[in-house]
Amino acid sequence: MIYGTDSTGATGTNVSSVSKSKSEVTNPQEAQDRFLKLLVAQLQSQDPMNPMDNAQMTSQMAQINTVTGIQQLNQTMQSMAGQFTAMQVLQGTSMIGRTVLTEGNTLGVAADGTHTAAFDLEGSAASVKVSITTASGELVDTIDLGSGQEGRNYFTWNPAGKYSGDASQLRYTVTAANAGAAVAATTLSPHAVIATSANNGNLTLELDNGSSLAYAEVKAVY
Question: Compositional bias (Polar residues) at which positions (predicted)?
Fold first, then answer.
């Protein structure tokens, strides 16, 4: 940009005041208009015996074009970001009514009275058992799954004849072992998606238990 004065100092105050307010301009067209007015004022006030050379003028024009281009690019990117967020929310509506798996230990939603949940094992296990309890820790049932493979494993459980309350709030833990050594397990809870929204440009799912979940945290959809 044009900062400073000519050799006579005649326009020092005007150039300085314009330069200070220049940083406040966010509209590319306004910034370009201010530059042209400043350039004309500088040309009119320059010392005829020591005029601005062509290289200096070309450099200043290249600078304003660069700044204007960056501002226009920023505005374009902001507009595209807004459109992308709206598109995400619109596409996210296809998730409503679907069931997602996220880290947790509740049985969640049931299909035809049967609950399906999952867990991730850090390694293969020769023995895998699932213990289902109430929120207070009272044992409701134990499922012996036999062996388990490394990675994602699913199990189903029907509370008929075993529990008459709200089974979706029951907890479960996984105990896995291989050759006498424990195998770490991460439990995954199923939840129904009831709505979608956007948070800081990211798709967010509203779940049936009242919580919100970033789409990036979804482990599986079914």
Answer: 1-14
**Tens digits of per-residue pLDDT, 155-183?**
999 999 999 988 988 999 999 999 999 99
**Domains held by the chain: number:** 2
**Does 58 lie in the same domain as 44?**
yes
Cβ(182)–Cβ(176) under 8 Å? Answer: yes
Same domain for 122 and 205? Answer: yes
Domain with 208, as residue range(s), is: 96-221
Instruction: Say what the pTM is.
Output: 0.59
**If you ran DSSP here, which 8-state letter would residue 161 be given?**
T
Q: Is the sign of the CA dihedral 80, 86, 89, 94 positive or negative?
A: negative
Tokens, residue 139: 């044992």
Mark whether 60 and 105 lie in a shared domain: no
> What are the strands, taking DSSP E only, across the chain?
99-103, 110-111, 114-121, 125-133, 139-148, 151-157, 171-178, 181-182, 185-199, 202-207, 212-214, 220-221
